[in-house]
């Protein structure tokens, strides 16, 4: 079959007002057959989006296409005038952007924007275009397809917007569709729905597509062929099969390894370290409840214990309350109910009510290292402050300790004269960690510390953290939206859903690659099943497990009912929508907040040691 | 209009009223702080203690400050700001005679400057970095940097002295023809417009550029939309709020600008009235004029804020 | 702070190679600042001496910028006016900015009623147009140099307050402030060590803009005869005194006007080259 796209020697450079040109795409060649889906994969700065946009003859502010040739169908893109390019964009080639929320114009209705390219390129009348849009909305499994177009972008959810953008791209039946990280901003449980919708329309319409992503597992579901990019150069260009099973290039292999999150060796396993267990846990949270608006709790009755040397993970999707939970522990958010104890001593609700010593013992590492470090201070000054503040160190002593801290996080001492803006993302996150270590804390709360980083860099940070934990006998509370990250380093994992703790279980049990499969809360099940696996064909099988929902009667508005009710595929009419779910505790230390008999979840019931009676399941077990 | 928008607007109106109240306190306090009083001022050297006391009683100056404030505020609210100390005329009448002239001048300046400024602002945003953009920016820097009296002086120098087209003073009789009107208004309006256009165009340009760098404009470009379509259908609907804000805020400059312009061209408006009252220290008139100007300013700011609220698509039902 | 100032200087000077405007701005501002200090000492004549028989005389070797309506040397009068125009405006600008920034920081650091009270009062002050405020002040207290300084400082403080407060509030939401709070740092430490250094550059830009506004206000007041009073004269007074020369296009009225324009345009060009613009100030 003939190639639809041929790219030869493509070069793109940043041209600053002053100084020399910086190449960001260095002589890239590839081609794409009709009906094929090609993935461009790489980390930030690899040039993947730049290459994809060049296919439309477009370069972002400051960038210039400086060489090479691009042919799409009969169009020689780089030799076209800007007027001619307008006729290709949106007609021959269309684009699906990463953040649909930003790419939709807030002032215009969705329908106006979806059919806009059809009107610009006069491929159909407004009436025909609207009919076609509704048909696409149906195909993309959007709710209320007849009327969703009348709404404004802020009135629909992120996952829906992303699918609406696919409709926008397909309205003119383009020869080529470019998908730029279309699911990166979504929660995993939403991502799987969007991926399914994309896959279906791509297959049914035999669309030729370029899929840009940093996530190999997602790409494995969509692409026939993968190009691995690094620093604007092609590292490897093979079929998806080959890349996943037998990567030829070293960089591809390292990417695969980092993404698989192989569990670090288990020599620091729980039993050994908990040998020194005391009676009181290091940190204990009892019946925590937080309200931002009076009467509307965002966290419900949460219990948690962290032992010395233990790492606890907290996972949940955006809005589940995981960051609020961590902020309440450190005293940044005040609580409406419940108690927090450090070594058995109660902790005050506010920062002012805590002693310096208490503040020192619990440290918090923020998600975004860019904003967590004061850009006007040097690294040395940033690290010196907690030393002076908590330990009263001075002069020479501070300098020595700063050097020690830097070597602890594997950075050169020379970095201490620099400012945060001069460092890379990974280096900044290490400084962030070093500042927490400077306090010599007992427990560190880590809020999504790797989610802003590239996979390989993030994996290195995780490795560093587990090393530090061994040498310093630290405890971590590790907050993340990513099960792969959490299960690899946590002894225990807490699952939050809509402010409630629905499950707590051993970290290893969350391992995606088979292993010890446990009975689960239905939400945990959905979460685990939604994480793309690094193999082709996963999407098809995973989708089957997300079956349709049992029909239940109208649910009374009651805060105490199960929060997952509206999405649960195992809900029971007359129970789940009537009574409060109960807390189950298993012999293996697992906790589940659910009505279902353990037997119903797992198909085996010998492990149940304690279970509040299910009929009526009113009294909950403490 | 939905309840959120209504609530925000009511809230904004409430703040406006509160602000006006604080302004009245500030204006009254400053104008009443002076050691001598109006009675002393009027009688001068010839004052005997008796006549002074009588006059004070007449003006209510023997009352405590807060009583005088409440009386004054009540007067303002009921439309009677008192009488002039200089000629004994009711202030309402003095202002009423001058206000239409000032409003005419302001209206003329607005009608000329707004379309010109929007045109310059939008075009220089669309063709950023072009010669047009650079020259309009140079003009803007020049206009906001130099005092109005300098612009007025240059205008007089060119149009009245060198070219002899226009008269340096703007006298207009009741039965003036249209061309006479234009000639009389040309220079005051031109002077006011220089600064107005510069400010408005700069702010409009910034608002449009802000929109043009948004992801949804990039999306529209990638759909093949022409630059006219992008500006008209994508950027402008979102820039209406900021642009309305820019227009209202720039127009508030008129309140300061007319003082100079009316004085230079000897224009019989409210600002010359205020200037005269300052030189003659006719305090009731100063107070009334000041409150009138502040009221005008608050109306404009309020208008700007309401435009911003109403044009925010996220507040739609 | 010192390093921030140094890096700013480096940026300004390095901008010269790129932008002609920045270079012109820098030269004009430096020249006038120098004149504000040495101007009165290098003037060829006494500012109030009647030295020419010619009224509104043209430019000549003897009187480089001509003579005024009483036959005084315009160059000398401009040089003597420099400390009034620049010095008075500078003191007023410093007062306005210090008061504005301090109250802005206090408001930003104390949420609740402290912030609400300060913000409401400043909002009320900003809604009195600056020229109007100056007229009220002059009407009430008469015109003098200290009064003019106080007037300009009060009139332009609210704008500075707004910018400082919004900058501080923005910085306060950043994570490194939370880090400092979590460490147990005191409010003054957070304000001075963490917040203030991050506001330095935009506040400096705002200072420049405010200086221009104040120069314009004070010149306008003098032009109306309500500013600096005779026998002293700033550049605005010089334009007023010699306004009759307009008919002849004599340098007596043009030269002081050009002096004002070169100063304010110079400051504006310099600000533009810094590349940071604070929010548009309400009420020019």
From TrEMBL, chain A:
<dbReference type="GO" id="GO:0005524">
    <property type="term" value="F:ATP binding"/>
</dbReference>
<dbReference type="InterPro" id="IPR003593">
    <property type="entry name" value="AAA+_ATPase"/>
</dbReference>
<feature type="domain" description="ABC transporter">
    <location>
        <begin position="7"/>
        <end position="256"/>
    </location>
</feature>
<dbReference type="InterPro" id="IPR017871">
    <property type="entry name" value="ABC_transporter-like_CS"/>
</dbReference>
<dbReference type="InterPro" id="IPR050388">
    <property type="entry name" value="ABC_Ni/Peptide_Import"/>
</dbReference>
<dbReference type="GO" id="GO:0005886">
    <property type="term" value="C:plasma membrane"/>
</dbReference>
<dbReference type="InterPro" id="IPR003439">
    <property type="entry name" value="ABC_transporter-like_ATP-bd"/>
</dbReference>
<keyword id="KW-0547">Nucleotide-binding</keyword>
<keyword id="KW-1003">Cell membrane</keyword>
<dbReference type="Pfam" id="PF08352">
    <property type="entry name" value="oligo_HPY"/>
</dbReference>
<feature type="domain" description="ABC transporter">
    <location>
        <begin position="283"/>
        <end position="523"/>
    </location>
</feature>
<keyword id="KW-0472">Membrane</keyword>
<dbReference type="GO" id="GO:0016887">
    <property type="term" value="F:ATP hydrolysis activity"/>
</dbReference>
<dbReference type="Pfam" id="PF00005">
    <property type="entry name" value="ABC_tran"/>
</dbReference>
<dbReference type="InterPro" id="IPR013563">
    <property type="entry name" value="Oligopep_ABC_C"/>
</dbReference>
From TrEMBL, chain B:
<dbReference type="InterPro" id="IPR045621">
    <property type="entry name" value="BPD_transp_1_N"/>
</dbReference>
<keyword id="KW-0812">Transmembrane</keyword>
<feature type="transmembrane region" description="Helical">
    <location>
        <begin position="12"/>
        <end position="34"/>
    </location>
</feature>
<feature type="transmembrane region" description="Helical">
    <location>
        <begin position="139"/>
        <end position="161"/>
    </location>
</feature>
<feature type="transmembrane region" description="Helical">
    <location>
        <begin position="181"/>
        <end position="201"/>
    </location>
</feature>
<dbReference type="GO" id="GO:0055085">
    <property type="term" value="P:transmembrane transport"/>
</dbReference>
<keyword id="KW-1133">Transmembrane helix</keyword>
<dbReference type="Pfam" id="PF00528">
    <property type="entry name" value="BPD_transp_1"/>
</dbReference>
<dbReference type="Pfam" id="PF19300">
    <property type="entry name" value="BPD_transp_1_N"/>
</dbReference>
<protein>
    <submittedName>
        <fullName>Peptide/nickel transport system permease protein</fullName>
    </submittedName>
</protein>
<feature type="domain" description="ABC transmembrane type-1">
    <location>
        <begin position="99"/>
        <end position="304"/>
    </location>
</feature>
<dbReference type="InterPro" id="IPR035906">
    <property type="entry name" value="MetI-like_sf"/>
</dbReference>
<keyword id="KW-1003">Cell membrane</keyword>
<dbReference type="GO" id="GO:0005886">
    <property type="term" value="C:plasma membrane"/>
</dbReference>
<feature type="transmembrane region" description="Helical">
    <location>
        <begin position="105"/>
        <end position="127"/>
    </location>
</feature>
TrEMBL record, chain C:
<keyword id="KW-1133">Transmembrane helix</keyword>
<feature type="domain" description="ABC transmembrane type-1">
    <location>
        <begin position="82"/>
        <end position="271"/>
    </location>
</feature>
<keyword id="KW-1003">Cell membrane</keyword>
<feature type="transmembrane region" description="Helical">
    <location>
        <begin position="132"/>
        <end position="157"/>
    </location>
</feature>
<dbReference type="GO" id="GO:0005886">
    <property type="term" value="C:plasma membrane"/>
</dbReference>
<dbReference type="GO" id="GO:0055085">
    <property type="term" value="P:transmembrane transport"/>
</dbReference>
<dbReference type="Pfam" id="PF00528">
    <property type="entry name" value="BPD_transp_1"/>
</dbReference>
<dbReference type="InterPro" id="IPR035906">
    <property type="entry name" value="MetI-like_sf"/>
</dbReference>
<feature type="transmembrane region" description="Helical">
    <location>
        <begin position="84"/>
        <end position="111"/>
    </location>
</feature>
<protein>
    <submittedName>
        <fullName>Peptide/nickel transport system permease protein</fullName>
    </submittedName>
</protein>
<keyword id="KW-0812">Transmembrane</keyword>
<feature type="transmembrane region" description="Helical">
    <location>
        <begin position="20"/>
        <end position="42"/>
    </location>
</feature>
<keyword id="KW-0472">Membrane</keyword>
<keyword id="KW-0813">Transport</keyword>
<comment type="similarity">
    <text>Belongs to the binding-protein-dependent transport system permease family.</text>
</comment>
């Amino acid at each position: 079959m003939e190639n639809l796209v041929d790219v030869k020697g493509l070069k793109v450079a940043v041209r600053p007002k002053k100084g020399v040109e910086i190449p960001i795409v260095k002589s890239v060649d590839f081609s794409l057959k009709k009906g094929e889906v090609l993935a461009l994969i790489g980390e930030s700065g690899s040039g993947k989006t730049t290459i994809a946009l060049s296919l439309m003859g477009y370069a972002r502010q400051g960038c210039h296409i400086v060489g090479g040739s691009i042919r799409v169908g009969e169009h020689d893109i780089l030799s076209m005038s800007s007027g001619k390019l307008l006729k290709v964009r949106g007609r021959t080639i269309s684009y699906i952007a990463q953040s649909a929320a930003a790419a939709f114009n807030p002032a215009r209705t969705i329908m106006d924007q979806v059919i806009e390219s059809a009107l610009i390129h006069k491929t159909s009348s407004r009436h025909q275009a609207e009919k076609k849009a509704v048909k696409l909305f149906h195909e993309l499994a959007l709710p209320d397809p007849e009327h969703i177009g009348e709404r404004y972008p802020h009135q629909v959810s992120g996952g829906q917007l992303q699918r609406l953008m696919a409709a926008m791209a397909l309205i003119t039946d383009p020869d080529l569709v470019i998908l730029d990280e279309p699911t990166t901003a979504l929660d995993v449980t939403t991502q799987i729905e969007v991926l399914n919708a994309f896959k279906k329309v791509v297959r049914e319409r035999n669309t030729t597509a370029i899929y840009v992503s940093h996530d190999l597992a997602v790409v494995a579901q969509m692409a026939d062929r993968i190009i691995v990019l690094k620093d604007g150069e092609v590292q490897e260009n093979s079929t998806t099969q080959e890349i996943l099973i037998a990567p030829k290039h070293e960089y591809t292999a390292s990417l695969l390894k980092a993404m698989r999150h192989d569990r670090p060796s288990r020599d620091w396993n729980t039993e050994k370290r908990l040998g020194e267990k005391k009676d009181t846990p290091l940190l204990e949270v009892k019946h925590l409840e937080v309200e931002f608006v009076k009467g509307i709790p965002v966290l419900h009755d949460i219990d948690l214990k962290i032992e010395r040397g233990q790492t606890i993970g907290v996972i949940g999707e955006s809005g589940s309350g995981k960051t609020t939970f961590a902020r309440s522990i450190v005293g940044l958010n005040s609580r409406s109910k419940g108690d927090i104890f450090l070594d058995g001593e109660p902790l005050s609700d506010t920062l002012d009510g805590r002693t310096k010593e208490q503040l020192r013992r619990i440290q918090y590492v923020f998600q975004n290292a860019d904003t967590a470090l004061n850009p006007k201070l040097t690294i040395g000054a940033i690290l010196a402050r907690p030393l002076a503040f908590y330990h009263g160190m001075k002069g020479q002593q501070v300098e020595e300790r700063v050097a020690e801290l830097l070597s602890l996080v594997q950075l050169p001492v020379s970095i201490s004269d620099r400012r945060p803006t001069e460092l890379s993302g990974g280096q900044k996150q290490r400084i962030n960690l070093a500042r927490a270590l400077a306090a010599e804390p007992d427990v560190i709360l880590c809020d999504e510390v790797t989610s802003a980083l590239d996979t390989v860099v993030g994996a290195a940070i995780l490795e560093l953290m587990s090393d530090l934990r061994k040498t310093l006998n630290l405890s971590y509370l590790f907050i993340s939206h990513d099960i792969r990250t959490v299960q690899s380093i946590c002894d225990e994992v807490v699952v939050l859903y809509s402010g409630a703790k629905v499950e707590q279980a051993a970290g290893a049990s969350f391992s995606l690659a088979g292993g010890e499969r446990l009975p689960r809360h239905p939400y945990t099940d959905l979460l685990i099943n939604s994480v793309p696996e690094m193999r082709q064909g996963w999407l098809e099988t995973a989708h089957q497990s997300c079956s349709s929902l049992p029909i239940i009667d109208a649910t009374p508005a009651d805060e105490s009912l199960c929060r997952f009710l509206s999405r649960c595929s195992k809900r029971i009419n007359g129970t789940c929508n009537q009574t409060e779910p109960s807390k189950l505790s298993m012999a293996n230390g697992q906790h589940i907040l659910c009505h279902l008999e353990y037997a119903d979840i797992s198909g085996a019931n010998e492990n149940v040691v304690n279970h509040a009676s299910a009929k009526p399941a009113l009294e909950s077990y403490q | 209009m939905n309840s959120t928008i209504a609530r925000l607007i009511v809230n904004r109106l409430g703040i406006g009223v509160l602000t006006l109240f604080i302004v009245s306190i500030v204006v009254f306090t400053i104008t009443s702080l002076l050691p001598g009083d109006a009675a002393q001022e009027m009688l001068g050297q010839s004052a005997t203690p008796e006549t002074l006391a009588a006059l004070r009683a007449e003006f209510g100056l023997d009352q405590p400050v807060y009583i005088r404030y409440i009386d004054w505020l009540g007067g303002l609210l009921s439309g009677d700001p008192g009488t002039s100390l200089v000629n004994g005329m009711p202030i309402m009448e003095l202002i009423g005679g001058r206000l239409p002239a000032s409003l005419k001048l302001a209206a003329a300046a607005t009608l000329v400057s707004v379309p010109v400024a929007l045109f310059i602002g939008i075009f220089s945003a669309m063709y950023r970095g072009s010669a047009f953009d650079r020259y309009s920016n140079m003009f803007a820097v020049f206009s906001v940097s130099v005092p109005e009296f300098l612009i007025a002086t240059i205008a007089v120098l060119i149009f009245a002295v060198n070219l002899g087209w226009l008269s340096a003073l703007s006298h207009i009789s009741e039965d003036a023809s249209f061309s006479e009107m234009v000639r009389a208004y040309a220079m005051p309006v031109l002077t006011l417009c220089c600064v107005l256009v510069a400010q408005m165009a700069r702010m409009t340009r910034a608002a449009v550029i802000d929109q043009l760098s948004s992801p949804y404009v990039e999306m529209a470009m990638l759909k093949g939309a022409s630059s006219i379509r992008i500006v008209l259908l994508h950027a402008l609907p979102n820039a209406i709020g900021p642009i309305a804000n820019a227009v209202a805020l720039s127009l508030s400059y008129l309140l300061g600008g007319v003082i100079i312009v009316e004085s230079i061209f000897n224009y019989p408006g409210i600002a010359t009235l205020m200037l005269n009252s300052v030189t003659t220290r006719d305090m009731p008139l100063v107070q009334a004029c000041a409150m009138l100007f502040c009221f005008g300013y608050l109306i404009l700011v309020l208008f700007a804020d309401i435009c911003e609220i109403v044009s925010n698509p996220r507040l739609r039902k | 702070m010192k390093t921030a100032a140094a890096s700013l200087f480096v940026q300004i000077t390095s901008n010269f190679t790129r932008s002609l405007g920045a270079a012109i701005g820098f030269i004009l501002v430096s020249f006038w600042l120098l004149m504000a200090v040495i101007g009165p000492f290098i003037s060829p004549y006494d500012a109030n001496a009647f030295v020419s028989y010619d009224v509104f005389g043209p430019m000549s070797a003897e009187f480089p910028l001509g003579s005024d309506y009483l036959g005084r040397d315009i160059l000398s009068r401009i040089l003597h006016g420099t400390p009034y125009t620049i010095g008075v405006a500078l003191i007023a600008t410093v007062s306005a900015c210090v008061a504005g920034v301090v109250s802005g920081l206090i408001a930003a650091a104390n949420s609740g009623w402290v912030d609400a009270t300060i913000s409401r009062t400043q909002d009320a002050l900003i809604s009195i147009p600056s020229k109007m405020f100056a007229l009220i002040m002059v009407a009430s207290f008469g015109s003098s140099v200290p009064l003019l300084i106080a007037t300009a400082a009060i009139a332009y403080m609210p704008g500075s307050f707004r910018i400082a407060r919004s900058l501080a509030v923005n910085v306060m939401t950043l994570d490194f402030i939370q880090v400092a709070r979590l460490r147990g740092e005191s409010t003054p430490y957070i304000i001075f060590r963490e917040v203030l250094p991050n506001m330095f550059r935009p506040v400096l830009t705002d200072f420049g803009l405010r200086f221009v506004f104040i120069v314009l206000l004070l010149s306008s007041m003098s032009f109306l005869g309500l500013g600096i009073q005779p026998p002293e004269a700033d550049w605005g007074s010089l334009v007023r005194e010699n306004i009759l020369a307009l008919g002849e296009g004599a340098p007596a009225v043009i030269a002081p006007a050009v002096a004002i324009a070169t100063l304010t345009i110079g400051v504006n060009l310099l600000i533009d080259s810094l590349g940071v613009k604070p929010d548009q100030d309400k009420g020019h």
